[in-house]
Write a structure and sequence with these properties.
The protein is of the alpha+beta class and about 375 residues long. About 30% of the residues lie in helices and about 25% in strands. Strands 9, 10, 11, 12, 13, 14, 15, 17 and 18 form a nine-stranded antiparallel beta sheet that branches. The protein has a four-stranded parallel beta sheet with strand order 3-2-1-4, sandwiched between helices. A four-stranded antiparallel beta sheet has the order 5-8-6-7, covered by helices on one side. Helix 1 packs across helix 10, helix 3 runs antiparallel to helix 4 and helix 4 crosses helix 5. The longest helix is centred in the middle third of the chain and has 18 residues.
Length: about 375
Amino acid sequence: MLFSAPLKSNSKKVMLLGSGELGKEVIIEAQRLGLETIAVDRYENAPAAHVAHRSYVLNMQDKDAILEIIRREKPDYILPEIEAISIDALFEAEKEGYNVIPNAEAVSKTMNRKNIRTFAAEELGLKTGPYKFVTTQEGMLEAAQLLGFPCVIKPVMSSSGHGQSVARDEGDIPLSWEMAKEARGDASELIVEAFVDFDYEITMLTARNGKETVFCEPIGHEQRDGDYVFSWQPMQMSDTAKAKAQNMAKLITDGLGGQGLFGVEMFVKGDEVYFSEVSPRPHDTGMVTLITQSQSEFALHLRAVLGLPLGFTFYGDGASAAFKSEVHNYAPVVDVDDSLFSENSFVRVFSKPEAHKGRRLAVALVFDKVEKALEKSREMITKIKDA
């Protein structure tokens, strides 16, 4: 493959639509390969904008605004990094010959839980828990009564766990309805899911470059309020379950098509594996690969997008812990204890321009055997605070 320098007439351009902390790592990897980078987001000074060659701020739901920037910049690769984005703009850009990663149809399916669940369960025949789609509070109650309590309620479109809740009895239904309606994204329709009695949940990072599909070691994770707080790699699972998880990941990513890295979320009960969701981009739980692999999920994403070989070395076990702010601050400062920078641990600070309660501002990473790494990550996160 030919590599050029950025900011030249022959430069290869990568445009990120959504420029948070995961996008920042993607931009850094792109620049290591001499690509010209453009970061686009809905707010000023998003993390990826700090390291991109250029950045733009616009309404990510505005089809015309997105297309105007795409036509002006003429990127070689368009990487949607968030769900809350105008899908019509992506379809139109693709029609005009732009390369949307992995493709506009895959983005459309995965940004909407109804689309992806129907595709996975009904078209591909993947095992999932029972579910119902509803549009009213009365319909939610009926679905919950049918599926049984506890049940999980999510907007069909939202990001980072926004609007998700667990209803444990009929008394929780009104609150779950209100939480869903306040979600970032489209809450006009909700999915009510039967609670899967799983042993654990995993993310199977799956990269495809048009010639091969490779899998990272399975990542275990702990969620709170629908958002990740701890992840570790590898998740110990039976050979049978791991093979089923890889097969499921290949089926869903082959079905979606295109190139790039996908984060496939699954529930595991014994040797049985259930499909949950898939994101056609690096996954927040996959930040642990920054310390466990020779090529992080972000590097693999870029390699896959460019059609480069996907080989990498798994260095060994590790864990990550997300630090979330407890305050609202327009000039946030993260207080990290110096001891967290050691021979086998470090912290990445995201440099977000504004903090609010629950917003992720940093991640702690540790390299050690899984149990020790997870224990240390839990300890490390207590040593990071809002200043």
